[in-house]
């Protein structure tokens, strides 16, 4: 799940204004959304400015899209500038953290690397008359495609191989830890969720994200144990974490490590 980082800043005190007998000043509302940039801690930082009548304070949010600043409809430029400068180092630090967490875009071509259980596999693309399932050979993933080496075709073959490997491995790990925890899941399914590594339904169906196949086995096992533990404790209480710890003593460390990976 993408995590939102917020920092709410209260507006400065404004002196009370009396009623005036004259006509009110007519003002045009500023644009609701603007793309801007500001010099913060020595860096030119682009950001999205959102104005709304529902806000009474200035809010800063940083996620994979960058910095978003939400302000009251008629917030002054002076107030906005003051808040941005006050939080400049915080903004730059958080943006740098997001940048380092961004996954490296895969290039689907011969000689490129893909992740499998935390290790890098080298792609070996073999054009031929017909496509065929990919095969793993001593640290290399051999991909057999028809006629040419178009990236989309290579990606499709690798994705099929990933799903096949995930189904096989996840079934093995679930069977292993279900016996240790003395639970019986109703079913095990692959998931393509964008924000969850796994989940367990009230009916006992365990869903594991197919992208787990790229991560180290220790993290796959942690997610498996976490979801199976819900078959005994459908919550995140102390009792639940006790169940997890019974077969995964270093779960806290693994949980922190898992958070460094993005879906």
Mind sketching the topology for me?
Elements: E1 5-9, E2 33-40, E3 43-52, E4 58-63, E5 66-72, H1 77-86, H2 88-101, E6 113-116, E7 119-128, E8 132-137, E9 140-146, H3 151-181, E10 187-191, E11 198-200, E12 205-209, H4 217-229, H5 238-247, H6 251-258
Parallel strand pairs: 3-5, 7-9, 10-12
Antiparallel strand pairs: 1-4, 2-3, 4-5, 6-7, 8-9, 11-12
What does this molecule look like?
The protein is of the alpha/beta class and 263 residues long. Among the domains are: 30-101, no CATH class; 153-258, Metalloproteases ("zincins"), catalytic domain (Zincin-like, 2-Layer Sandwich). Helix content is 33%, strand content 29%. The protein is built from 6 helices and 12 strands. It has helices at 77-86, 88-101, 151-181, 217-229, 238-247, 251-258, and strands at residues 5-9, 33-40, 43-52, 58-63, 66-72, 113-116, 119-128, 132-137, 140-146, 187-191, 198-200, 205-209. The strands form 3 sheets. It has a 5-stranded mixed beta sheet with strand order 1-4-5-3-2, covered by helices on one side. The protein has a 4-stranded mixed beta sheet with strand order 6-7-9-8, covered by helices on one side. Strand 4 (58-63) and strand 5 form a beta hairpin. Helix 3 (151-181) packs across helix 4 and helix 4 (217-229) packs across helix 5. The chain starts with a strand and ends in a 5-residue tail after the last helix. The model is unreliable at 1-8 and 13-27 (pLDDT under 50).
């Amino acid at each position: 799940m993408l995590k939102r980082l917020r920092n709410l800043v209260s507006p400065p005190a404004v002196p009370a204004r009396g009623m005036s007998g004259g006509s009110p000043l007519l003002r045009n509302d500023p644009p609701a959304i603007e793309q801007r940039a500001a010099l913060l801690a020595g860096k030119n930082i682009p950001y999205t400015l959102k104005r709304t009548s529902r806000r009474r304070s200035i809010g800063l949010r940083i996620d994979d899209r960058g910095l978003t600043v939400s302000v009251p409809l008629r917030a002054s430029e002076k107030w906005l500038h003051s808040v941005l400068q006050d939080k400049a180092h915080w903004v730059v630090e958080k943006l740098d953290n997001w940048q380092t967490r961004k996954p490296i875009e895969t290039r689907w071509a011969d000689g490129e690397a893909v992740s499998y259980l935390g290790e890098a596999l080298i792609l070996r693309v073999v054009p031929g008359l017909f496509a065929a399932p990919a095969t793993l050979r001593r640290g290399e993933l051999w991909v057999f495609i028809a006629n040419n080496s178009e990236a989309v075709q290579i990606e499709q073959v690798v994705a099929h191989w990933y799903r096949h490997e995930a189904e096989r491995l996840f079934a093995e790990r679930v069977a292993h830890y279900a016996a240790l925890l003395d639970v019986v899941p109703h079913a095990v399914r692959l998931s393509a969720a964008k924000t969850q590594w796994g989940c367990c339904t009230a009916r006992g169906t365990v869903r594991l994200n197919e992208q787990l196949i790229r991560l180290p086995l220790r993290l796959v096992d942690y997610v498996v144990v976490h979801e199976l533990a819900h078959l005994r404790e459908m919550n995140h209480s102390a009792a639940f974490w006790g169940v997890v710890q019974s077969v995964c003593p270093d779960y806290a460390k693994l949980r922190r490590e898992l958070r460094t990976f993005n879906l």
